User: What shape does this take?
Amino acid sequence: MNDPKNQPTASVEQQIERLREKIRYHNYRYYVLDDPEISDAEYDGLMRELMELEGRYPHLISPDSPTQRVGAPPLDKFDTVRHTIPMLSLANAFGEEEVREFDNRIRRILGREHPVEYVVEPKIDGLAVELVYEQGIFTMGSTRGDGEIGENVTQNLKTLPSIPLRLLTSPGNPIPTRLEVRGEIYIEAKDFQKLNRQREVDGEPAFANPRNAAAGSLRQLDPQITAKRPLKIFFYGAGLIEGCTFKTHWEMLEQFKKWGLRVNPESKICKNLTESFDYYLHMQEKRETLAYEIDGIVIKVNDLKLREELGEVSRSPRWALAYKFPPREAITQILDILIQVGRTGALTPVAKLKPVRLGGVQVSRASLHNQDEIERKGIMIGDTVVVQRAGDVIPDVVRVLESARTGNEKPFVFPTKCPVCGADVLRSEGEAVARCTGISCPAQLKERILHFTSKGAMDIEGIGRKLVDQLVGKGLVSDVADLYFLTEEKLLSLDRMGKKSARNILEALEKSKRPSLARFIYALGIRHVGEHVAKILADHFKNLENLHQASEEELQGIYEVGPQVARSICVFFQQEETRQVLKKLKQANVVVIEPAETKKLKNLEGKTFVLTGELKRFTREEAKRFIEEQGGRMTSTVSKKTDFLVVGENPGSKLDKAKQWDIKLLNEEEFEKMLQI
Ligand code: IVH
Assistant: This one.
């Protein structure tokens, strides 16, 4: 006879499937309908029972089982996913007039007088994703990315309890063969504040707004981290759907709900434009009490056939519009003006405010940007001001209420010495920013260290602001390389530092010693070199030595590198301090991993291309990618070193230059032949 322990009888299989269905149903009641039928304890009991059974019969575990949400291993990087149908963005309107134009244009194109029916929805401040269900099973999820190509974040999306791993079935409820469903991932306001408070404790930079928080939480390489973030989703649209058709958007939303997909209960049908305006006012009021941040409403044509007729223009559909709310304002007082010193020495004035509630959060600081802004707005210490939040937590000062002045206000004098190190402050001609000139300014050093250790850079965990304050304050670290010479003993001399934390920090430092070239360049904190430019430089130069030796002219020749960036890179590598730090990093065994040579054809090895005019078959980015894949380079200016000039329609002055220097010209066809694509 079969051993009943690991040979499931049909009834065990049935039992497991019945449990799963029950759990799916209660998930749906809780997350989609917001109307649970059982207590949390009862739900936990069902989950435990299922886990126990699956533990005993592991071969019966299926990827869509409710127990399989967390557990995927961390990734090195996200794969990319091409959306079957591009994910467009919305055109914005800021007043009734613009919305009327939208409605008029629609009726003009459709050639009709009578009103168009719309569906209106809150516009949530989160990030768009697309989920694919094949035969009802969640198989892939991706971010919007640039609209055409996004990142594969399937494992992370699986950790959201409001995302069904399998669509709900019921009699008469069809399951599409393929469903590409789109929605917005977001974080509720109270969860956002809680998350930021925790980040402050951990010494990590706060998220500026809920959108950044949602994006930062979803784009984690380790799904376990995403699982801990309180992400939610509302579904509001679709890509390709096979095996199921709809006549209207509303009908589609209704069907989403039946499949267990969470739809915003605030969505509504409006018979005409007037009803949409009423909805706008209604939501503007309701905004204050909603659990999540919205920055406007979205107005969409309900009839899907009409949408097809309307089509799109410049990456936005003509059938939908975002009608934005005006930024939220409040009145408060400026108690003081403080100066912050950044990584590159920039002095930024910040207003310390009498705390005020603004759009659901308490604010106590406002950015004043620079000296000119303070003067232009006539801001004095003690002034009563209007502050506004346009999404970010840090608000702006809009204007001073001069009528509220008492005569006790004090003008703000911009410092001529750095408030941290006492060095002279320099404001170059034509620049808005004043900078501290001290080469060993501790404020700059602290910011440089925090930048060096940050996620997109060397990604060293556990080194927060409080720790950096101590490391710099006690003289243990006087440049970023010194981090790698920290010892357990040195760390234990700091306040509130235990053996375990010290070891964790040393381990994190050790782990960071093999950065990619792009990360390393970014980590160096060269002015004007953000993550994107760092990646371009890494792809172009392949190793640090080449970048180090590059002339300003060569740098400027790189597509997307302008004169300011080129200058800044050269200045950076000429500094004695830079040389010292690079030498010390080498001594500490920090080894930069250089980008692997592509294994593709190397037909264009060493050849330099410049493009002029418009190409019909390629975008500039595509042409660049094809050239680079085959070992060539694309630069933006013609020089004697240029091998080929690809001439599109309406070429510019580059053509004359190329002719002067006898550079080989290619038309689009010849270029395509050369690429062999
Ligand atoms: S529909 C083609 N509906 O706003 C239009 N978008 O720029 C597709 N968003 O990328 C979007 N709430 O991230 C739509 N109810 C809603 C939305 C919404 C927020 C976001 C979405 C999109 C952006 C539009």
